[in-house]
Amino acid sequence: TQLLEQSPQFLSIQEGENLTVYCNSSSVFSSLQWYRQEPGEGPVLLVTVVTGGEVKKLKRLTFQFGDARKDSSLHITAAQPGDTGLYLCAGKTGNTPLVFGKGTRLSVIA
Amino acid sequence: NAGVTQTPKFQVLKTGQSMTLQCAQDMNHEYMSWYRQDPGMGLRLIHYSVGAGITDQGEVPNGYNVSRSTTEDFPLRLLSAAPSQTSVYFCASRQTGIVSPLHFGNGTRLTVT
Predict the structure, then answer these.
(1) For chain B: N or C, fewer Cβ within 10 A?
(2) Is the pLDDT of residue B98 over 80?
(3) Which candidate in B94, B99, B103, B108 is best for mutational testing of the A interface (most A CBs within 10 A)?
(4) 3-state SS of chain A: helix, strand, coil percent to 5?
(5) What is the C-alpha separation between B21 and B52, in angstroms, rounded?
(6) Is A42 in Cβ contact with B107 (below 8 Å)?
(7) Which of A32-41, A50-59, B84-93, B95-104 has the lowest mean pLDDT?
(8) A39-63 b/e with 16+ CB inside 10 Å = b?
């Protein structure tokens, strides 16, 4: 079974601070996705990365896929209260179903 | 478009009762799946389907049945509910293709007493 370990599990920061969330595995993935989930709703896709070393930016969010395609990171610059939520990474290999990490719960305090 | 619609939003069952969680999507997605989400456990795959008439087990299939008679619908059946099945259940669908994103419904919160 492929496992995705996310860290930290919980993160509480002040508005304006920077943060990085990590997603690590011993398995190689053909693609990796990041989702954000808000209370009472289902997860929503933020980004998909498919190439080792790939970096994608989405406004203040920067996503990186490790060179070996075993890990990924999400960096948020100048966090805002609207960034509060559960961040989930999910990896896929071949035709196997998507595997999710346990998530990082982020709270940004105004 | 409505996307992925799940009903009911909340449900309380007694141990041993049966029920069906409904899931419908209007995006003509071939792939549909059911997850359960528990505190500290993330999203765990229960069952999935790559098309009408085809279903397969995920990580935690015991106690759940599924069928896929149409592209649009993918109901999840609990045959004899147990307290361990208390959870939030999410249905998700996507287009075929390795990097296609999953589109999730808003979940069904199930409590089994």
Answers:
(1) N
(2) no
(3) B99
(4) 5, 55, 45
(5) 18
(6) yes
(7) B95-104
(8) eeebbebbbbbeeeebeeeeeebbb
